[in-house]
Amino acid sequence: MTAARIVVVGGGFAGTNLVKALKGKLPAGASLTLVSDESYTCFNPMLAEVVGASIFPEQVVAPIREILRPDAMRHFVMGRVVPRRPGRALARVRLARRHPPDRL
C-alpha cells in the first residue's frame, strides 16, 4: 500500500489549523503539503488596530513556516494550485512542482 499524500490548499486559518491538527494523526509514511500563494497568514479583523497604532503589525501577521514548523511529514510550498483536468486528483503548483494527492 502506498503512503497517503495529502495536499491542503490555502494558508489561511483553516489551512494552517488543519495541518497543525493533523500532526501525529497521520499514518506512518504519510506526507502533508500545504500550498499557499502567500508565505504568511494575516488576522484581518485586527488590521484596524494596526492602522490606529494600537498594536504592532507583527501581532497580526505570522509566517506560515513558523506556524507549521515543517518536519519529515509536513511541508510548505509557496505557490498557486492550477487546475489540471476535471475529475483528476492532481495538484499542479506554479513552477511545475507536482504533488499528486490522495485527498484534496
The total of helices stands at 3
Shape: globular
Strand order of the largest sheet: 1-2-5
H/E element order: EHEEHEHEEEE
Describe the structure.
- With 104 residues, the protein is α/β, with parallel strands linked by helices.
- It has a single domain, classed as FAD/NAD(P)-binding domain, CATH 3.50.50.
- Helix content is 19%, strand content 29%.
- The protein contains three helices and eight strands, in the order βαββαβαββββ.
- Strands 1-2-5 form a three-stranded parallel beta sheet. It has a three-stranded antiparallel beta sheet with strand order 6-7-8, with no helix packed on it.
- A hairpin with a 3-residue loop joins β7 and β8.
- It starts with a strand and ends in a 5-residue tail after the last strand.
- The relative contact order is 0.23.
- The model has no long low-confidence stretch (mean pLDDT 79).
Topology, please?
Blueprint (H helix, E strand, L loop, with lengths): L4 E5 L3 H10 L8 E6 L3 E3 L4 H5 L9 E3 H5 L5 E5 L2 E2 L8 E3 L3 E3 L5
Parallel strand pairs: 1-2, 2-5
Antiparallel strand pairs: 3-4, 6-7, 7-8
